[in-house]
Design brief:
- With 374 residues, this protein is of the alpha/beta class.
- It is 38% helix and 16% strand.
- The chain is built from 15 helices and 15 strands.
- The strands form 4 sheets. It has an 8-stranded parallel β-sheet with strand order 3-13-12-11-10-9-5-4. A 3-stranded antiparallel β-sheet has the order 6-7-8. A two-stranded antiparallel sheet has the order 1-2.
- It starts with a strand and ends with a helix.
């Protein structure tokens, strides 16, 4: 167990970091998020640039005051959107390629460009999803935006590559990311902690090269970004390539990975903090994560879909073993009724519970780390 100190408080690690893309954890107020035991949130630089714009946030006193969140905050650099709004959208792929993906044997070659972005040596030209206007984001621009947003921890601008990017494409992309990392360090004038992002895709040589390069620079901590190929079972091995090259005294954050199945492996690999949309994303689709009724153990869980008609006659709490206010005050039949009738309160209740469950899950891991059991 460790401590990550910021000007807005101390984070006990390992820690799960909920995603607050637009300066909000979807469906919840800041006060509610605080009650889920969340210690640290991550907001999105690109999306906040698109709207409301960094100047509005700055004039509001920065993100903390703008969103009424008094605890620590991170902002990513916009590098993930180079992938998600580029080749990710073109090919319909995420950071981890699904086994049955039609793109499994497709390879992005050096020099290839996504349809809606233009990636250059200086930065990336985006096309706004609001009005089609061109938005340029490079290392200097990303840092300046993040300084105006005012999060405690910011990241260098990078290119997150696709899981079907070839070795040559990934190598050239990595060279850009490394150049941009140096520019980000020079551009920063604030007291915010700047983390350097390790890239390199699924390629061991590139991952290790990137980890060594980032470790040689005066970053305050490190992000581990990019994709993990098409075999999630290899993630621990891939994290090992990177973490063994990074200094132990500086924090390591894993970007965009943190399903319940992943968390113990992530922690054992040496990751301190990690963000993921899983609890909120699934909640908005009617899925709740609960203690398993069929398996024993501290980390036995299952996922239930409240959209099933059977839950309309289920008078049990959402999770009998959970002490969150949702499980203490609402029954499955009521939440299922709300979900069936399209009431937004259903999404709010499930989101609150899921975040509370994830944070409680990680708190138990911290306890076991402290006791030498993990």
């Amino acid at each position: 167990m460790g401590l990550l100190e910021t000007s807005h408080g101390v984070v006990q690690t390992p820690a799960f970091v909920p995603v607050a893309t637009n300066a909000v954890v979807k469906t919840l107020t800041a006060e509610e998020v605080n009650l889920t035991k969340s210690q640290l949130l991550i907001c999105n630089t690109y999306h906040l640039k698109v709207r409301p714009g960094e100047e509005i946030v700055k004039r509001s006193g920065g993100l903390h005051k703008f969103m009424n969140w008094g605890r620590p905050l991170m902002t990513d650099s916009g590098g993930f959107q180079v992938f998600s709004l580029g080749f990710g959208r073109d090919l319909g792929t995420g950071k981890i390629l699904k086994e049955k993906s039609k793109n499994k044997f497709y390879e992005i070659k050096s020099g290839q460009q996504p349809k809606l972005l233009k990636i250059t040596e200086e930065g990336v030209f985006f096309c706004s999803y609001l009005d089609g206007r061109k938005i340029f984001l490079g290392p200097k621009e990303s840092i300046k935006i993040q300084e105006k947003l005012g999060a405690d921890i910011i990241f260098n601008f990078d290119e997150c590559t696709s899981p079907v990017a070839g070795h040559e494409y990934t190598k050239k992309s990595l060279e850009k990311t490394h150049r941009w990392a140096k520019i980000c360090l020079k551009a920063k004038t604030s007291k915010q902690a700047l983390f350097g992002i390790v890239q390199g895709g699924k390629y061991k040589d590139l991952r290790m090269e990137s980890a060594k390069f980032m470790a040689s620079l005066p970053f305050d901590g490190f992000g581990i970004g990019g994709e993990f190929g098409d075999d999630k079972s290899k993630m621990s091995e891939m994290l090992g390539w990177v973490i063994n090259k990074l200094p132990n005294e500086k924090p390591r954050h894993l970007l965009g990975i943190g399903h319940l199945d992943d968390i113990i492996k992530i922690v054992k690999s040496g990751v301190d903090t990690f963000d993921c949309i899983t609890p909120t994303h699934y909640a908005r689709r009617g899925y709740a994560f609960i203690h398993s009724q069929n398996r024993a153990g501290d980390f036995a869980w299952e996922k239930v879909y409240l959209g099933k008609a059977e839950f309309l006659s289920d008078k049990n709490p959402l999770d009998k073993k959970c002490d969150c206010h949702v499980c203490q005050n609402y029954k499955r039949n009521y939440i299922s009724h709300l979900f069936h009738t399209g009431e937004l309160t259903a999404l709010r209740l499930i989101t609150f519970h899921n975040l509370y469950y994830f944070n409680t899950f990680v708190a138990e891991i911290r306890k076991q780390v402290k006791n030498g059991k993990i």
